[in-house]
């Protein structure tokens, strides 16, 4: 999949939701005319119509982006863990589905919850946030590259495994410090401290530095090169990896971001 296909799928989903909502409003209207229920019709119909109009508006936005990108074939992407700039797009999901693209708009891989069963959509966020989770990192071929396991509770603490189920790192939070901000330690291997993290809970911009003050990665929203803006929305998050870190360390950083970004924009 590439960014054009992502926009096409999103536009189609918004279009379907818009028309289904409009149909539901019409059904309410007909039922009211047939006196199948009593009460103020506007209380039921107006919110549904607003919902329908909003999704039709979103459909037009994504449809125009597809037209803007055109039908020009896109080149083959590089490997997931060798790209320095990774753009993040969130798909609808009960907890997390984080698509990872390169700057040319080609899918590198994704981080998603292993549990995609339908009833997960019915669990309220306030409950889901407290449940343990198992995320996986997939490359563009659908191969598992890493596994991320979080514990139940208020913190985002996580254990990170490679594809062979060997522990390669993790993220640890203190729940008292993490109630109003993101504060914790990213570690490698067997609890060896690597990066101290402290940021606002909103996480719009973050520079990740090792314990010995080396820049290894950054996460930011709100700015991107003009060429990239032709393919992505302006506020698309960008992960930038330093050339000094290896593939395993990139896997750990992606795990940390999954830990703090789940339930965002889903």
TrEMBL record:
Q: Which UniProt keywords apply?
A: Membrane, Transmembrane, Transmembrane helix
Does Transmembrane helix appear among the keywords? yes
State which residue ranges cross the membrane. 12-35, 41-59, 80-98, 118-137
This chain belongs to the protein called Uncharacterized protein
Give the source lineage, highest ranks first.
Answer: Bacteria, Bacillati, Bacillota, Bacilli, Bacillales
């Amino acid at each position: 999949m590439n960014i054009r296909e992502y926009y096409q799928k999103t536009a189609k989903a918004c279009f379907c939701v818009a028309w289904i909502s409009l149909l539901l409003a019409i059904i309410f209207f007909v039922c009211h005319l047939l006196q199948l229920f009593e009460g103020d019709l506007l209380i039921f119909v107006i919110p549904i119509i607003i919902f329908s109009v909003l999704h039709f508006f979103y459909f037009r936005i994504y449809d125009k982006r597809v037209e803007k990108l055109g039908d020009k074939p896109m080149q083959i992407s590089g490997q997931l863990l060798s790209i320095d700039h990774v753009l993040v797009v969130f798909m609808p999901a009960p907890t997390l589905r984080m698509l990872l693209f390169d700057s040319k708009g080609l899918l590198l891989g994704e981080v998603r919850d292993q549990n995609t069963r339908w009833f997960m959509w019915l669990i309220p966020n306030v409950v889901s946030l407290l449940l343990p989770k198992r995320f996986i990192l997939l490359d563009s071929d659908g191969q598992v590259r890493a596994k991320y396991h979080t514990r139940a509770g208020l913190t985002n603490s996580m254990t990170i495994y490679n594809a062979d189920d060997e522990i390669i790192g993790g993220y640890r939070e203190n729940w008292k410090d993490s109630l109003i901000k993101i504060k914790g330690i990213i570690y490698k291997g067997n609890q060896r401290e690597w990066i101290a993290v402290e940021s606002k809970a909103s996480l719009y911009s973050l520079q990740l530095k090792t314990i010995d003050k080396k820049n290894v990665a950054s996460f930011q929203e709100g700015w991107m090169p003009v060429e990239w803006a032709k393919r992505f929305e302006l506020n698309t998050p960008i992960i930038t990896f330093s050339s000094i870190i290896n593939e395993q360390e990139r896997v750990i950083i992606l795990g940390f971001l999954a830990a703090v970004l789940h339930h965002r924009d889903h």
